[in-house]
Design a protein that fits this description.
Protein name: Glycoside hydrolase family 65 protein
CATH architecture of the largest domain: Distorted Sandwich
Keywords: Signal
Helix content: 25-40%
Radius of gyration: 27 Å
GO molecular function, one term: catalytic activity
Organism: Zopfia rhizophila CBS 207.26
Number of helices: 19
Number of domains: 3
Bound molecules: 2-acetamido-2-deoxy-beta-D-glucopyranose
Shape: globular
Strand content: 15-25%
Largest sheet: 9 strands, antiparallel
Distance between the termini: 40 Å
InterPro entries: 6-hairpin_glycosidase_sf (IPR008928), 6hp_glycosidase-like_sf (IPR012341)
CATH class of the largest domain: Mainly Beta
Number of strands: 30
C-alpha cells in the first residue's frame, strides 16, 4: 500500500510515543460497586438513563421505602389562582427597580400579587411517576423480617442484584433501566412466586407542588380523589393511565409469567397488584413510562443485555483515571470519581440540564438553574463524553427566544438567559433569580470547548446566533459611568455568592473576568467566520471596570465594606477565586495580587456554609497555581462529603444529594488529569504515580 506523507508522519509518531498500557477500567470500576444490607432512608441505590431514574430500597424496588421514580418529562401544574388579575402567568407584573438612570422591570414576586407570583415559582413541578414494590400475598412484611439481606449495584453493567431470605425462602431480584426508553425491567426468582406469596404492586401518587424542597419522597398519597387511574388489561400485560389535572401519562406493563394478573387493590387507593400465576418460580416484567402509549417490545433479558452494553461502552469510552489504592486519600478520591461517573450518567444527562438533586428527589420543585448549567455539564467536555453533553446543551438554542424577550422587556439588546427554569424556558420569579448575571457567558465557555474539540464550520454555525445574542446583551448591560469613564456591571445585581446588597453591588471580580472572557470568545467566533466584530463588543470589553482591589487583594465587588471580617461576606461561594483556575487567566490579572487574595481566603473564609461545587473551584485554583497537594485536599475537605453509595451530601444549606459537587469533582479532576493551556497534565501529588487516558485539556 502506498503511504501518504502524512500517514508516515503519523506512523512514526506512534512509534516514538512510549506505549502506555491501557488502564484496566473494569476492575477499578467494580471495586467500588456499592454493597448494602439495609435500605437507606434518603440515599436510594438507583438505576436510570439520564432522563429517567428509579430509586430503590434493599429489595431493588420501592417496597419498604418510597424512593422516587422521576423523569425529565413528568411535570404538573396545580390549578391556577382565581383572584382577579392573577389568573395566568400573563398577569404577572414583577417589580421595577432603579437601574442607573431608569426603571427596569424584573421578574420578582410582587407583594401586590400574592397569588400568581408563588404559583409561578412552584409550577410546574416534577412528579413522582410511580412506586413499585413487592406484594407479599396480602401479608404484612417488614424489612426486619428479611434475613441475609444483601444488595450489589454493578456499576459496570448498570444493574442491581438484591437477595434475601423470608421464612427460609430465597428471593433474588435483578433491576435495570433501559438506556433508550423509560423502562424499569425486573426479574424476581423465588419459590414464593410459585406459592402465590410474592407479586408486585404499582402505586401512583398525586403531585406535591407545595414544597420548594420535596425530599426525600416526592408525591402525596392521601388525596386519592384528586387524581385518577384507569387500568386496561391485555394478555400478559396492562396499561395504567394516570391523570393528574392536565398531566397524564401511561405506565405500560408487560410480564412473562403465563396467567399472572393485574388487579386494582381497592377503589380507595391507586394501588395495583400484579399477582403471579402459580406456575413457575420466577416473574419478570417491564414497566415503560411515557406521556403517551409507548410500547416497549423488549423483555427483561433483552433490556438487561442492552443496559449492560450501554454501561460498558460508557465506561470504556472517553477518559479514565487510575489512582493508587495504597494511599487512602487517593483511594477515596477514586471512589468518589467512579461513583460520580455512575450517578451523573443516571441523574445528570437528560434532555434538560440537570437539577441539583438530579432524579433522586425534587429540589427547587424539580426545576433546573441556568447559572448551574456550567457546573452540571462542563466536566463532560474534559472527559470526552460528548454524546451525554449533547443531550442537553441545546438548551441555549431552545431558550434563546424567551431570552431575547426577557432582555427586550428590560430595554436591553440581545438575549438575557433566565435562572430557575422549567422545560418551557420560563424563569421563576425571584429577587436573586432576576438579578444574577453569571449565567450569561456560559455559552461562550461551552462553544469554545466544542471548538477546541471540533473546529468545524458546523460548530461555528451551531453557536453563532447564541453567542451573538449573549454578547449583545452583555455589552448592552454594561453601563458607561461618566465619572470613571469605564463600563460598570451593576448595580443592581447579585454576584455568584448571592450574599450582598444588590443595590450596592457593582463590578464584582468574577463577573468582570467572566464578561471579558465571554466577549473575547464572541469576538474570536466572528473572526473565525471572517465576519466583522461589532465595534462596541471590543470597546466594552477593553473598557470594563478594573478588578476591584482593596489592601492589595481582590475583593468580591468594588467598594465592599469589611468583607474579610463580616461573617456573611466571607462565606458562601468564594467566586473571586474563580478568575484563576475555573477561568483561564485574564491579561489584566495581577498574579501577585491574586496569590495574596488566595492566602486571604484561606485565612478568613468560613467554609461551613460552602456548597459542593466550591471545593472543586478551590481545587482548580490550587491546581493552576501548581499546588497539587492542596487541590487534592480541597476535593477531600471535611465539608465536602460523599456518602457510602457516592451521593454528594452538599453542605448545610441544600438538600441531599447536591450533584454539582459530583460534576464539579469530575471537572476539577478532568482539569488536573488533562492539564490546561500552557501546562501538560497531570497535576496530582508527585508520589501518587497515577495513570490517565483520554482527557481533553482545559482552557
Ligand atoms: C450490614 O453492613 C454493615 C456495614 O457494612 C455491617 O456493619 C453490618 O454488620 C451488616 N449487617 C448484617 C446483618 O450483615
Ligand atoms: C404549566 O403551565 C404553564 C403556563 O400556563 C405552561 O406553559 C406549561 O406548559 C404547563 N406545564 C404543564 C406540565 O402542564
Ligand atoms: C385589574 O386590572 C385592571 C386593568 O389592568 C384594573 O383596572 C383593575 O382595577 C384591576 N382589578 C383589580 C381587582 O385589581
Ligand atoms: C433596591 O432598590 C429598589 C428601588 O430601585 C428597591 O425597591 C429595593 O427594595 C431595593 N432592594 C434592597 C435589597 O435594598
Ligand atoms: C398490616 O399492617 C397495617 C398497618 O401496619 C394494618 O392496618 C393491617 O391490618 C395489617 N394487615 C394484615 C393482613 O396484617
Ligand atoms: C395527608 O397526609 C398529610 C401528612 O401526613 C396530612 O398533613 C394531611 O392532613 C393528610 N391529608 C388528608 C386529606 O388526609
Ligand atoms: C385536592 O382537591 C381538593 C378539592 O378540590 C382541594 O381542596 C385540595 O387542596 C386538593 N389537594 C391537593 C394536595 O392538591
Ligand atoms: C371498584 O369500583 C368498580 C366500579 O365502580 C367495581 O366494579 C369494582 O368491583 C370495585 N373494585 C374494588 C376492588 O372494590
Ligand atoms: C497520601 O497522599 C497525600 C498527598 O500526597 C499525602 O498528604 C498523604 O500523607 C498520603 N497518605 C498516606 C497514608 O500515605
Ligand atoms: C460611577 O462609578 C463610581 C465608582 O465605581 C460609583 O461610585 C458611582 O456610583 C458610579 N456612578 C453611577 C451613576 O453609577
Ligand atoms: C501587581 O501588583 C503589585 C502590588 O501588589 C505591584 O507591585 C506590581 O507592580 C503589579 N504587577 C503588575 C504587572 O502590574
Ligand atoms: C463558621 O460559621 C458557622 C455557622 O455560622 C459557625 O458556627 C462557626 O463558628 C464559624 N466558624 C468560624 C471559624 O468563624
Amino acid at each position: 500500500m502506498l503511504l501518504q506523507p502524512w500517514s508516515i508522519a503519523l506512523l512514526s509518531l506512534t512509534l516514538v510515543c512510549p506505549t502506555s498500557a491501557k488502564i484496566d477500567r473494569k476492575s477499578i470500576v467494580r471495586q467500588f460497586n456499592p454493597k448494602l444490607n439495609s435500605s437507606h432512608p434518603y440515599s436510594p441505590i438507583q438505576v436510570g438513563n439520564g432522563n429517567f431514574a428509579f430509586g430503590t430500597d434493599i429489595t431493588g424496588l420501592q417496597t419498604f421505602i418510597p424512593h422516587n421514580t422521576l423523569s425529565s418529562w413528568g411535570w404538573h401544574n396545580s390549578s391556577l389562582p382565581t383572584t382577579v388579575n392573577q389568573t395566568s402567568p400573563a398577569d404577572f407584573t414583577g417589580l421595577e427597580w432603579w437601574t442607573h438612570d431608569r426603571l427596569v422591570p424584573y421578574a420578582q414576586p410582587n407583594p401586590a400579587q400574592k397569588e400568581i407570583s408563588p404559583w409561578m415559582i412552584a409550577n410546574p413541578h416534577r412528579i413522582n411517576l410511580a412506586r413499585i414494590g413487592l406484594w407479599w400475598g396480602g401479608r404484612n412484611v417488614s424489612e426486619e423480617m428479611l434475613q441475609q439481606r444483601s444488595q450489589t449495584l454493578d456499576l459496570w453493567e448498570g444493574s442491581i442484584s438484591s437477595f434475601f431470605l423470608l421464612n427460609g425462602n430465597r428471593v433474588e431480584i435483578t433491576t435495570v433501566v433501559s438506556p433508550d426508553s423509560d423502562t424499569v425491567a425486573v426479574e424476581i426468582k423465588s419459590q414464593m412466586v410459585w406459592k402465590g406469596e410474592l407479586g408486585v404492586f404499582f402505586d401512583f401518587p398525586y403531585a406535591s407542588g407545595k414544597n420548594k424542597f420535596d425530599a426525600p419522597y416526592v408525591g402525596v398519597w392521601n388525596v386519592t380523589g384528586n387524581h385518577s387511574t384507569v387500568l386496561r388489561e391485555r394478555e400478559n400485560g396492562a396499561e395504567i393511565r394516570h391523570t393528574l389535572d392536565a398531566t397524564s401519562y401511561i405506565t405500560d406493563i408487560t410480564w412473562e409469567s403465563e396467567g399472572a394478573k393485574m388487579e386494582r387493590l381497592n377503589n380507595k387507593t391507586h394501588r395495583y397488584v400484579l399477582k403471579p400465576a402459580q406456575a413457575g418460580n420466577w416473574l419478570s416484567f417491564t414497566a415503560t413510562f411515557a406521556p403517551e402509549l409507548a410500547k416497549n417490545v423488549d423483555n427483561f433479558d433483552a433490556i438487561k443485555a442492552k443496559t449492560a452494553k450501554w454501561w460498558t461502552e460508557y465506561w470504556e469510552t472517553g477518559a479514565f483515571i487510575s489512582l493508587p489504592p495504597a494511599n487512602s486519600s487517593a483511594k477515596e478520591l477514586q471512589r468518589r470519581i467512579v461513583l460520580s461517573q455512575y450517578l451523573l450518567a443516571v441523574n445528570g444527562a437528560g434532555k434538560d440540564p440537570a437539577q441539583e438533586s438530579g432524579l433522586v428527589n425534587n429540589g427547587w420543585y424539580g426545576k433546573f438553574h441556568m447559572e448551574m448549567v456550567f457546573w452540571h455539564l462542563a466536566h463532560w467536555t474534559l472527559w470526552n463524553k460528548w454524546t451525554l453533553y449533547d443531550r442537553s446543551i441545546g438548551v441555549y438554542d431552545r431558550f434563546l427566544s424567551t431570552s431575547f424577550e426577557r432582555a427586550q422587556k428590560q430595554g436591553y439588546q440581545g438575549a438575557r438567559f433566565g435562572k430557575m427554569s422549567d422545560p418551557t424556558g420560563r424563569s421563576a420569579p425571584g429577587e436573586i433569580n432576576s438579578l444574577l448575571i453569571w449565567q450569561q457567558p456560559h455559552p461562550m465557555y461551552f462553544a469554545e470547548m466544542e471548538w477546541r474539540k471540533y473546529p468545524t464550520e458546523k460548530t461555528l454555525k451551531k453557536w453563532d446566533h447564541i453567542l451573538t445574542g449573549a454578547a449583545d446583551f452583555m455589552v448592552s448591560y454594561a453601563w458607561f459611568n461618566e465619572s470613571t469613564k469605564v463600563y460598570d456591571l451593576g448595580p443592581p445585581m447579585y454576584p455568584v455568592s448571592e450574599n450582598t446588597n444588590p443595590n450596592q453591588t457593582i463590578n464584582p471580580t468574577f463577573e468582570l473576568a467572566y464578561w471579558r472572557f465571554g466577549l473575547n470568545v464572541a469576538e474570536q467566533w466572528q473572526l473565525r467566520q471572517n465576519k466583522s466584530v461589532p465595534s462596541n463588543w471590543r470597546f466594552v470589553k477593553e473598557n470594563l471596570a478594573p478588578f476591584p482591589v482593596e489592601n492589595e487583594v481582590y475583593v468580591t465587588y468594588e467598594g465592599v465594606k469589611d468583607m474579610w471580617t463580616t461573617p456573611t461576606l466571607a462565606e458562601d461561594h468564594p467566586g473571586l477565586l474563580g478568575i484563576y483556575g475555573w477561568l483561564p487567566p485574564d491579561s489584566r490579572m495581577n498574579l501577585t495580587t491574586f496569590k495574596k487574595t488566595i492566602e486571604k481566603v484561606y485565612q478568613s473564609w468560613n467554609f461551613t456554609y460552602s456548597y459542593g461545587w466550591d471545593f472543586p473551584l478551590l481545587a482548580m485554583t490550587a491546581a493552576r497555581l501548581g499546588d497539587a497537594e492542596r487541590a487534592v485536599h480541597w476535593l477531600l475537605d471535611p465539608n465536602n462529603q460523599f456518602d457510602e453509595i457516592g451521593m454528594p451530601i452538599g453542605g448545610t444549606r441544600v438538600p441531599t444529594p447536591y450533584f454539582p459537587a459530583s460534576a464539579g469533582l469530575l471537572l476539577a479532576v478532568g482539569m488536573m488529569a488533562g492539564g490546561w493551556d500552557g501546562l501538560e497534565g497531570p497535576v496530582f501529588p508527585k508520589t501518587w504515580g497515577i495513570e490517565v487516558e483520554g482527557f481533553s485539556k482545559a482552557m
